[in-house]
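Async update (no meeting this week)

Hi team, since we skipped the sync, here's where things stand on the single-chain job. The sequence we agreed to prioritize is pasted below, unchanged from the tracker. I ran it this morning and attached the output directly underneath so nobody has to dig for it. Comments welcome in thread, and please keep replies under the output.
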Amino acid sequence: MVTIASVARRVTRAVRFGRYGHKKVFEHIFDSRYWGDKESVSGMGSSLEQTADIRRELPLLMQRHDIRTLFDAPCGDLHWMRHILSETDIDYIGGDVVAGVVETAKAKFEGENAHFRVFDIIEDDFPDADMWLCRDVLFHFSYKNINEALRNFARSTVKYILVTTHTSPHVINRNIVTGDFRQVDLFKPPFNFPPSIVIDRFKDYAPPANPRDMVMISREDIATLVK
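Output:
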């Protein structure tokens, strides 16, 4: 029987053997729908149940910190973000490395305050924005790719990052090949983010998902950590 885990193992082996670069990995993931969620091609973490916290808290955070332009990358299929866009007047830029995802988002959601582009968070120059929403991606990246993405962000003009970190005391960070999954706690080795740099945070999960938060950090502080 084909399971999510078995397909994920095949993707992981393909990456390890050099058949895919990181862009092809995510194209394969979306084309095969191996995350297997019935609501969203972006996986279970994008379901309405799993995004109840962020759909409530993100607009409040943007109000508190005067976020006018949000860069969301990877933006996925906007299954949950579309609800925020319909209720706020922010300028939104969605970016995703998978061209098909971007084409679908453009057809459904492009408008005066919402724009989309093919975007690689590891290699491409960030657009001008107040905040980068980096949700549910770094835990699919190798250490090398995480550091490359954060260094790329540090070279940008974006003021803040709002990023996923797991919060269970039992999390022990480990390296993977990009396209696989493990929990990531950015406040533990080898990342060692100091808690003092957190500007804002909120819970972002519903059981049985692993406990995790979204944490807001300035670009300047990220730059000091990923030299």
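Quick observations from my side:
The chain has a mean pLDDT of 87.
Helices lie at 4-16, 22-32, 52-64, 81-87, 99-109, 143-154, 219-225.
Reply here if anything looks off.
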